[in-house]
Amino acid sequence: MSSFLILYGTGEGQTAKIAERIATTIRERGHEASTIDVRDRPDSFTFEAYDAVVVGASIHVGKHQDEVCDFVTDNRDALSGMPTAFFQVSLSAANEEKHEEAAGYVESFIAETEWHPDRIGQFGGALRFSEYGFLKHLMMKQIAKDLLTEDRRTSGDIEFTDWDAVDAFASDVAAFVEGRLGVSPDTTEDPAV
Asked: For the Flavodoxin-like domain, which residue ranges apply (predicted)?
């Protein structure tokens, strides 16, 4: 059994939701998993309690959260010494025609932080129209016009996350860590409990 940290930055909550889903999938494989919003980590934070780290960030106006970039840059050496993964959440990842744009954001993140995670995942985000003011609502509707089909335009908040892809990513990360550290998942617990 290994201990995973899923550390993330979120703007409107979808990255946090994805981080929790990754943690759940990892726990279902018999490992420990903790999620922490990068802005809420304790001042005394260390990596000592963790065998592997998954970092998540979302894209807003073409940029990842500064707090996530700073955290990764400041802790690059520690991250390089352990199994790691990175996941990015963006509307571009949900649009087949913009996958290259989404990949470009990942490349920019890697270049900026000089960190090379072992695994990378890209997931579609969400539109939280119920939380937007009038101007942001109009702006986000324009940005996401290619994703908004007729039936989605009137349905309020819209989620573009492919949860099967999130589960597959989490399982792949867990399997990679198991192989790299030579550990097996803890299957002694009764999953029904």
From this structure: 4-168
**Hunting for tokens 């990764």 — which residue is that?**
72
Write out the residue range of the structural domain in which residue 114 sits. 3-125+160-181
CA angle 158, 159, 165 (to 5 degrees): 160
pLDDT in tens, 90-136: 877 666 666 677 788 899 999 999 999 999 999 988 776 666 666 65
- Closest alpha carbon to 41 in 76, 90, 6: 6
Q: Which long-range contacts (CB under 8 A, 24 or more apart) does 115-118 make?
A: 115/72, 115/73, 115/76, 115/79, 115/80, 115/84, 115/86, 116/80, 117/55, 117/79, 117/84, 117/85, 117/86, 118/83, 118/84, 118/85, 118/176, 118/180
Q: How many domains does the chain have?
A: 2
Could you tell me if 111 and 133 lie in one domain?
no
Distance from chain centroid for Cα 151: 27
Q: Please list, in sequence order, all residues whose beta carbon lies within 8 angstroms of the beta carbon of residue 147, skipping any fewer than 6 positions away.
A: 91, 94, 95, 158, 160
Instruction: Return phi, psi of residue 3, to 5°.
Output: -110, 125
Is residue 107 domain-shared with residue 151, that is, in the same domain?
no
Residues forming beta bridges with residue 51, ordered by sequence position: none
pTM for this prediction: 0.82
